[in-house]
Amino acid sequence: MKINITIFTLSIFFCFLKSPSLIFLIIALIALLIYSLYKRNFIALLFMILGLLIGQSSFIEAQKNIPSLSKGFINIDLLISGFSELKPDGNYEIKSFYTTLIGTNLNVLYRSQTVNIQGYANTYKLGNRLYSKIYVKNYSIKSEGSIIFKKICQLRNYIEYRIKEIQNENVKALLFTLLLGNTNFIGYSSSQAFKMTGISHLLSISGLHVSIISISIMSILGLFAKKKTSFIVSTISIILYMAIAGFGAPIMRAGIMLILYNSLRLAGVRTSLLDSALYSIFIILLFDPFQITQVGLYLSYSAVLGIYFLSDPIAKKLHFIPSPLSNSIAVTLSANISTLPILLYYFKGISLLSPLTNIFIIPLFNLITILCFFAMIFILTGIPVSNFLFEPINILWNITNGITDYFSMVPFSYLVIKNFSAVHFIILYSATFFIFFALPWILYKITFYTLKNHFKIS
Questions:
Q1: pLDDT tens for residues 233-273?
Q2: With 90 as the cut, is the pLDDT of residue 118 above it?
Q3: Domain final position from 120, 145, 170
Q4: Which of 82, 285, 309, 457 would you label with 301, given CA atoms 20 to 30 Å apart?
Q5: pLDDT in tens, 300-344
Q6: What is the DSSP string of 143-187?
Q7: pLDDT range class, residue 9, cuts 50, 70, 90
Q8: Does 130 score more than 70 pLDDT?
């Protein structure tokens, strides 16, 4: 019963933020009722399928309301779908779905507001989708949005103001990136080196950052506090981190999954990473149906599924390597293997050095993430943050940059495949399934029957 109450409460909370139609709550209630009666894990799959179907239908319906923008001066009402991000040139940019607004005083706008925009529009095509940029001349607020998002906007503005006061450019860039999800201050050379070495995901707040913060808090509090207290503080910290990061898609996916997983474990309910992933995708699509169109959604969950299904088989093959290192390598390889077809299909290229660079860089970035999180706590509580935090962040970032620069110079480290189609996508996933699941079963059967015939076992 505790599991049902937890998930249903979260569903209502996120539905309240989105204000969807009643059908969302009805389907959530039916799915939870079925789970209560039959206690079958496959119902989690039903959650995902229903969420995908609802999300897709909602997306198609919402697309009708997204105005097509032409080039030139426009006067239009838009629904804000994100939070503002400061750019190095002093302008702010903020999203309205596939439209980006650019201007000098947009930091007071926030998600869920409806705003009348006057400015100059430029529409361009990327892949099969149209995107627009509007350079805002004037705007007026037509309707205020959620009070929750308004408070988050004010909190982000305060932290942004404090970060701008920092003199060290490396520390400033990292705090913008890892606290507010604003990568505009990461230099071009650094971002390209991260891309060439397959570790760009470290610059986007995601499961790795959320997990390391949660584990760190629970480990520290576990020394002198009860497990339940540690979990509550960790959960509050994750929710705070999600809010400050603007409830971005990657951190929402990771945060909800982690909170669900820990909640179920704390409640004494036997669960798995797979169950938590399937529950979380349902809640995420209730909260934001537009996630169905984001490649990040597919990358995140394919990585989770890859880790769930492939990490143990790979770790067993690495039995000759000490356990902590072999587990780390297995997790990295399984995530890389499972996301490979998606990367090739959407981005037409992959880094061949990604498994190696992840092993070197992730431990360093974990330390950077922890230090940046505690810097955020000091900023929020008004405690002066001195070099005892900034200097280690700067040193670790310089080491990270040095390693990525070195690996990015390796010849043929980045493979470009321009003609990777949907057929190749299916073949590659089918081959992965065959190698890791079908082939071991076939070899087992062959070995069994060979031994049976050899020893004439009846």
A1: 888 888 889 889 888 777 887 888 888 777 777 777 666 77
A2: yes
A3: 145
A4: 82
A5: 888 888 888 888 888 888 877 777 778 878 888 888 888 888 888
A6: E---HHHHHHHHHHHHHHHHHHT---HHHHHHHHHHHH--GGGS-
A7: very low
A8: yes
Q: Does 192 share its domain with 287?
A: yes
Joined together, the tokens standing for residue 395 give 């040193």
User: Is it the case that residue 47 has pLDDT exceeding 60?
Assistant: no
- At 400 the pLDDT is 93
- Is there a single domain that holds both residue 20 and residue 124? no
Q: Is residue 224 part of a domain?
A: yes
User: How far lies 278's CA from each of 46, 234, 272, 305, 312, in Å?
Assistant: 9, 22, 10, 10, 20
Supply the CATH number for residue 133's domain: 2.40.50.140
The predicted pLDDT at position 150 comes to 92
Shared domain check, 204 and 165: yes
Buried b (16+ CB within 10 A) or exposed e, 382-401: eeebeeeebeebbebbeebb
Which among 73, 24, 8, 5 is positioned nearest to 288, based on CA atoms? 24
Q: What pLDDT sits at residue 338?
A: 85
Is 449 domain-assigned? Answer: no
- What count of other Cβ atoms lies within 10 Å of the Cβ of residue 26? 10
Looking at the structure, do residues 131 and 180 belong to the same domain, yes or no?
no
Token pair of 35, please? 């789970």
Read off the tokens for 148. Answer: 């929750």
**Between the CA of residue 442 and those of 152, 426, 439, 447, 454, what are the distances in Å?**
55, 21, 5, 9, 18
259 with 317, same domain? yes
d(CA 69, CA 125): 12
Shared domain for 119 and 169, answered yes or no, is no
455 within domain boundaries: no
Residue 151 one-letter amino acid: K
**Burial tier of 168 (Cβ tally within 10 Å: 0-12, 13-18, 19+):** middle
Both 319 and 412 in a single domain?
Answer: yes
pLDDT score, position 293: 66
d(CA 320, CA 279): 36
The pLDDT mean for the chain works out to 78
pLDDT digits (tens, 9 = 90+) for 406-429: 888 888 778 788 777 767 777 877
Phi and psi at residue 350, to the nearest 5°? -145, 155
pTM of the full structure: 0.78
The count of domains in the chain is 3
The Cα–Cα gap between 212 and 173 comes to 20
Structural domain containing residue 56: 2-63
- Pairing between β-strand 414-416 and β-strand 349-351 as defined by DSSP bridges: antiparallel
Do both 39 and 83 map to the same domain?
A: no
Angle made by CA atoms 290, 299, 433, in degrees to the nearest 5: 125
For 448, the token pair is 């069994």
